[in-house]
Amino acid sequence: RIFAGDQYIATLGGSDQTIEEIEANARLIAAVPEMLEFIRAYVNGDFYESELYEMARDLIKKATGAKEDNQ
After folding, report:
1. Contact 38, 55 (CB under 8 A)
2. Would you say residue 71 has pLDDT above 60?
């Protein structure tokens, strides 16, 4: 089961995917609400460039499961 915060959004598995592929897809799905927030902030000009950079870097970490800054 995949959750975005407390909200259940999907179940993965039951296919020919490896556990690594399933986990990668789960990370991407879980990051979607924050990606949308980022895109809205970018389009609306709601943040300074440095804040957008930090948001983008955090989203990349979340979507890829990276622990370090060098994705």
Report:
1. yes
2. no
Q: What is the mean pLDDT of the chain?
A: 81
Q: Is 18 exposed, middle or buried (0-12, 13-18, 19+ CB in 10 A)?
A: exposed
Q: What is the pLDDT of residue 17?
A: 77
Tokens representing 65?
């499961």
DSSP secondary structure string for all residues of the chain: -EEETTEEEE---SSS--HHHHHHHHHHHHHHHHHHHHHHHHHHT-S-HHHHHHHHHHHHHHHHT--SS--
